[in-house]
Every structure is written in structure tokens, then in C-alpha cells.
Design brief:
This protein is of the alpha/beta class. The chain has 11 helices and 12 strands. The protein is elongated, with a radius of gyration of 21 Å. A 6-stranded parallel β-sheet has the order 2-1-3-4-5-11, sandwiched between helices. It has a 6-stranded mixed β-sheet with strand order 7-6-8-9-10-12, sandwiched between helices. The longest helix has 17 residues, at about 40-55. Helix 5 (about 135-145) packs parallel to helix 6 and helix 7 (about 200-210) crosses helix 8 (about 225-235). The protein binds alpha-L-arabinofuranose.
Length: about 325
């Protein structure tokens, strides 16, 4: 466990290189990642790994392969290893109280990044750093309301949800539904999870297309599922972006390329580059400084022309 003042007083150093300071002075961060399910997640992982290096923080990293049990056992292992701080992106919102209490009892601060938990006891973690997923869903719905303002009849929407029980799936659906609620001709006729993966998006879209001949719009909770759905739409002889309008969330490079190519119509950005802010917060909580309970990521939206302009300098 880090004891900055004690070690500084003792002049402790074990000759570790890379941080400019002693190994003993280095913060150890245990990070329990959701998995590698999407382009967003890959960019998020790279950002965390690179920022830890830049900040001179020792990173212990685990990939839970989208399973809560794996994330819980990684967090328990970080507690046993007495890391200085734990951060994780909870795969689902519920079921974290016990392990969070174990971390609190061991005096190890926890930072939530990217996704929230539904624990009533907010003293179990120091802060939640990430996007407002309700806002993202709202932006997607608002675009559709504007785009379909001149539609004379029903606009049939298929929805590809993210991982069941995850904060982004719950909140994006909530925001989207609220934004279209005043327009009864905008009808969600099919909604199912594609688990945030390209393969999931493709498979579920194939099933949607078999069951419904009249889909006008696809709302996919992330780019990857939208990209998988595009494959299914094209295989069915339809033109994505025209026969079926597509709205997605993330704005990762492949999504932006499809938007720029006219296969997606609108993307709401979800910024995965959380690493630098996470390292700042980690340093602060380890030093015992207070941090805001909620740190929200700034995000934008892209139409096809904006995607064309942004692509050459897109970081992820
Ligand atoms: O939690 C963020 C979401 O998780 C991203 O939108 C999605 O691509 C990822 O898998």
C-alpha cells in the first residue's frame, strides 16, 4: 500500500525506472475492464494504458470478457494485492455492493469509469467519470424527430440494444424513447440486444429483417452493432442509409467512415479517451484530495458532412 509521506521521509527507493521516482512512490492502479467487445472499448483500453504510462502509474489490467463474475474476481484480486486505487467500468449496473464494501473495508478507493452502478451507498466509490448515456440517447432521438418531421405515415424503428442490464443500454434507450415520445408515428417495432458487438448486431438485424419487411430506421446503441447490421441489410439487398436510415452511438473510426460513405446517417459521440482524466483522479484520491462526485465527458454529434471533415484527424 502506498504511504507517500512515510516513504518520502525514509528516502525509500528500489531503483525502478520509468516514473522518474522510486517504485515505492509509484501509485498502483488496478483496472478491471469490461472486455474487448467494440472499437470503443479498444480505444478506451489504449487510452488507459498509455495514460498510466505517461502519468508514471503502475497499471494492473484485466479483461473480464463481458462477464461480471470475472470483473468481481479481478477486483478481489486487486484488494488482495493491496493496490493503491481500483478503477473499473462495470459491465452491468447491479450486484456490486459486496465487492465495493470489501474494497472500502480495505481502505482502497474505487473510481467508476465509463459506466455507473446502482448501489444506493454512494460512499462505496469516490467518483463516476464518464458520459451521460441518457443525453446520448436523447440526441439520437432528437435527430430522428427532426429528420422525420415531413413523414406522412408511420416511421418503423428497429433498436439494437447494448448489453442487457448495462448502464449505456438502459440509459440510451431511456433517452431515445423520451425524445421521440411526443411523435406517435415514430414506432419502435423491434428491440433486442446485440451485446455491443458487430457479430451480435449482424445476427439480430438478420432476424429483424426476416420478421419485419417495413423497417425504416435502425437505432443501434453503438457503432459496432450498426456496422454488423449494415452487413445484414446489404445481404438482404437493401441500401443502408437510404432504404433503412441508421443512427448509432460512439463515433469510432469505422463508424465515422460508414457515416462519411453514406451508410450511416447520424452518430452521437461517446468519448472513450478517459485515460488522462482517470489518472488525474487516481492521483488525487490516493493523495486524499476530494474529487467531484460526477465527472462528465464532453461529447458532440456528427452528420455525414461533419464525419467527412473530422475523419482525417480522428484519434480513434
Ligand atoms: O460503455 C460504453 C459503451 O460500451 C460503448 O458505447 C460501446 O461501444 C461499448 O462497448
Amino acid at each position: 500500500m502506498l504511504a507517500l509521506s512515510l516513504l518520502a521521509a525514509c528516502g525509500s527507493s528500489d531503483g525502478d525506472s520509468g516514473s522518474g521516482g522510486s517504485t515505492s512512490d509509484k501509485i498502483t492502479l488496478g483496472f478491471a475492464q469490461v472486455g474487448a467487445e467494440s472499437g470503443w472499448r479498444t480505444a478506451n483500453t489504449k487510452s488507459i494504458q498509455a495514460s498510466a504510462k505517461d502519468a508514471g502509474i503502475t497499471l494492473k489490467f484485466s479483461d473480464a470478457q463481458q462477464k461480471q463474475a470475472n470483473q468481481i474476481s479481478s477486483i478481489r484480486s486487486y484488494i488482495q494485492q493491496k493496490v493503491d486505487v481500483i478503477a473499473f467500468s462495470p459491465v452491468v449496473v447491479s450486484g456490486w455492493d459486496n465487492v465495493l464494501k470489501e474494497a472500502k473495508d480495505a481502505n482502497i478507493p474505487v473510481i467508476l469509469t465509463d459506466r455507473a452502478v446502482d448501489s444506493k451507498d454512494t460512499t462505496l466509490y469516490k467518483t463516476f467519470l464518464g458520459s451521460d448515456f441518457v443525453k446520448e440517447g436523447t440526441k439520437a432521438g432528437e435527430w430522428l424527430v427532426k429528420d422525420s418531421a415531413s413523414a406522412s405515415g408511420d416511421v418503423n424503428i428497429a433498436e439494437l440494444q447494448g448489453t442487457t442490464g448495462s448502464a449505456p443500454a438502459i440509459d440510451r434507450q431511456k433517452g431515445f424513447k423520451a425524445a421521440i415520445a411526443a411523435n406517435p408515428n415514430l414506432k419502435i417495432i423491434a428491440s433486442q440486444t446485440g451485446d455491443f458487438t458487430r457479430a451480435g448486431g449482424k445476427q439480430v438485424m438478420e432476424a429483424f429483417l426476416k420478421a419485419h419487411k417495413n423497417i425504416n430506421v435502425l437505432f443501434a446503441h453503438n457503432d459496432d452493432m450498426g456496422l454488423g447490421a449494415i452487413e445484414a441489410i446489404e445481404a438482404a439487398g437493401l441500401t443502408p442509409g437510404k432504404d433503412i436510415k441508421i443512427i448509432t452511438i460512439d463515433a469510432v473510426h469505422d463508424g465515422m467512415q460508414a457515416l462519411s460513405d453514406g451508410k450511416i446517417n447520424y452518430i452521437v459521440e461517446c468519448n472513450p479517451l478517459l485515460g488522462p482524466q482517470l489518472m488525474d483522479v487516481a492521483k488525487k484520491v490516493v493523495a486524499g484530495e476530494s474529487v467531484p462526485a460526477r465527472i462528465e465527458t464532453e461529447e458532440t454529434t456528427f452528420d455525414q458532412a461533419q464525419a467527412k471533415a473530422a475523419l482525417p484527424t480522428r484519434e480513434y
